[in-house]
Amino acid sequence: MELTARILPPYERCTDKELPAGFFNPPSRFVESQHEFRLIPQLREAAQTGNPYKILARAAAVFFEAQHLPTGSPLEISKGILELGNALADLAVTGRMAYSLFNTPPLSEAKIYEMISVQLGLLVQATPAEMVSAINPALNRAYDVAWALRGPVAQRAVARAPLLWIAVSGEDDMPHRPTNVPSPPFEQYEIPVTARGVTVQTRFFIASPPGGTIPAANPHPTRTLPSDLQPHVPDGNNVILFLHGHSSGAEEALNIIPHIHMAGLKLGKKFSIISFDLPNNGYSESFNHEKVATSSATTWPAGLLDHGSVATPILDFIEDFIVAFVDALDPITPIKNRFSGVIGGSLGGNMGLRLGRRSPMPAWLSASIVSWNAASVWDPMIQDLLKSQAPGRCQNNWNATETPDSRVGYFHEVYEKTVLPVIVPYTQPELWYRSGWEPCKRLHIEGSRIARREIYNANFRQWHWRVAGEQLVYSHVDRVDHADNSTPFRYTLNTVNHLLVASENDNFAGSNIFDATRTLASLMVNTPGRSLLLGNTGHSVHFERPAFFAKQIVNFLPSTIPTLEIPAMPLSMQITCIYREAVLSVGKKKRTGPPKLGRILLVGGINQTQNIPFSITVAECIFHIEHGCEFFVIKADGSRTAVHVVRKAGSRPFISSDHDNVEANNLLSLPKC
Fold it and tell me: Running DSSP on this structure, what letter comes out for residue 488?
């Protein structure tokens, strides 16, 4: 890996003055503000049933009450009752449990009326006609909400706006779609993903550049739920997989997506960015962390003389889950054969580094990886009286059972409590963005808090702290087995072309991500790629510098996508230029003088068979050579010298030509691409 100098990105203005459209605040009478906007008991009790027919019956009972108010009742009373009826009806379709039951199997309208009527009869004394009159507004509201949340993109925006705040209770029935926060302007999908025996219904979206005709926003059918759409990556598009940060969700990619699209189109490429909810994050299925591994399975040596092992089963599961997600999606819409790379920051960057040394390495993963401000680049926070307190506090939190005060306690610790008084006198969210990035910094933190209120539940809280604790004790500069000095350092096993990014303003005491990343880059001498060290930038570079960063990402990704398909005809490829890595250090020592040129990373030239230029990675070149294609260079005398693949035990394959370092015009002496 080439260790580069720090650069100052161009200025990108913060234009936000208020939260973007799509955030809706609840009426104060429906939430307990002192408990971080938890829904009132009347609404929570309905959500806890998980039964849409019982919930709709409760809504209908409220509408029945509104329809039978004494003549002359104040308008405010009638309005308040109707809003309560709407809120109850919302809960029949906003929770994952209730919506699934409502949608499976789809029932006839008559059967739905019958099931609600049975429950309504337990709540009010009404004639059949009065029951229908009370059930109708409840059903109307429920179907309107369902279409606003899950309908096609063209219809969602139109359907969502007039509904204003929609009731949802993540503590009782996890939401399946963004509800009172901005929803992605792309179709959302779900597929089951299985990793380590745990199957999770996972939400994601595919963001492709605009193209074609946008369908009209037609009115939705009044008594049907929206159909689940089939995921599809348009033909000819390259694929980028986005991995979000800790306790975030798929929507984290939205800010940088249009800039990646634009940067790609300027180079003649169309990128489809796939962003999905990592386990127990966003709007995917929620589950208890001990379903993956018991709490005691996470281990680390605590005291100075303790030399036990470091075990991080939740991080291992997340890594496996990412690979399983691609495996699950590829049969539905082929993506493996057009992968450009994996990108992500913080937890996503941590996963990028882990994936870069995965064994066995999936072919699709060998393209490129971009990791920014990655977690776990620090020394493991163990065997240190001060630093080991942090994972210990996380462990206490993930083991804590849920109580009525857990919700407010979580938000206090994450959003209000300083990390370490005096040493790190900032709250966690203040570390996410650079100082002075206002008002965007304040607005992003505010929006994050609103979003977490919507999805908060016991599973989310415990998962949050367990992932946080495991990231603190895990380290990319540690050995594979912390307790065994005969095992290699993890970073020596990274083989995928990597752009390792760090921000100067993300260098707080304890984690010191900027310094740690720079050190890690200097150590990764066996990894192709380079560092990108950014001045005056905070942890969330993809928010603070989206236009600049998108260009850096797109320019780093392979110029062509490894199809990993056997060519239709043998190709004759003349290599006329190469790109080699620059080695600036050996181990922990920096080189003096000009950088030494290392192995070849890219080759370019002319496809003589089709008379077109090409530029490909060495991995692609090796693949095509081993499937019958001819690669060659022209010697000084005009004759050809074949390029072949060299495989040696214990090292990665590489390409070579006859008489390297002897002939005046061999492969290694070609000009830089």
Answer: P
User: What pLDDT, on the 0 to 100 scale, is given for residue 29?
Assistant: 96
Structure tokens at 257: 């997506």
Q: How many other C-beta atoms are found inside a 10 Å radius of the C-beta of residue 5?
A: 7
The set of residues, in sequence order, having a beta carbon less than 8 Å from that of 75 and lying 6+ positions away, is none
225-237 residue pLDDT tens:
999 999 999 999 9
Spatial neighbors of 195 by CB under 8 A, at least 6 apart, are 317, 320, 321, 323, 324
E strand or H helix at 606: strand 596-607
Residue 504, pLDDT score: 97
Lowest mean pLDDT among 291-300, 485-494, 634-643: 634-643
Give Cα 506 to chain centroid, integer Å: 20
Q: How many CB atoms lie within 10 A of CB 357?
A: 18
Q: Report the relative pairing of strands 198-207 and 271-276 from DSSP bridges.
A: antiparallel
- 222 Cα distance to chain centroid: 34
Domain 188-209+233-556: CATH architecture, name and number where available: 3-Layer(aba) Sandwich (3.40)
- Two structure tokens written together for 46: 């309905």
Q: How far apart are the first and last CA of the chain?
A: 18
Residues near 58 by Cβ (< 8 Å), separated by ≥ 6? Answer: 46, 88, 119, 123
Name residues whose C-beta falls within 8 Å of residue 76's C-beta, 6 or more positions apart in sequence: none
433's tokens: 């963005």
Rounded distance between C-alpha atoms, residue 197 and residue 337, angstroms: 26
Mean pLDDT of 30-50: 97
Indicate whether 222 pLDDT > 80.
no
Span 212-221, average pLDDT: 64
Exposure string for 533-559, b = 16+ CB within 10 A, e = fewer: bbebbbbbbbbbbbebbbbbbbebbbb
Q: How many CB atoms lie within 10 A of CB 108?
A: 9
- Domain residue limits, the chain: 28-163, 188-209+233-556, 572-669
Distance in angstroms (rounded) separating the CA atoms of residues 653 and 624: 13
Indicate the pairing of strand 612-617 with strand 596-607.
antiparallel
Q: Which two tokens stand for residue 94?
A: 């906003």
- Torsion angle, alpha carbons of 29, 34, 37, 43, to 10: -50
Q: Measuring CA to CA, which residue among 264, 273, 209 is closest to residue 241?
A: 273
- Please, what's the b/e burial string for 176-214 (b: 16 or more CB within 10 A of its CB; e: otherwise)? bbbbbbbbbebbbbbbebebeebebbbbbbbbbbeeeee
- SS3 of 653, please? coil
Q: Residue 599: which H helix or E strand, with range?
A: strand 596-607
Q: 279: closest CA among 186, 333, 204?
A: 204
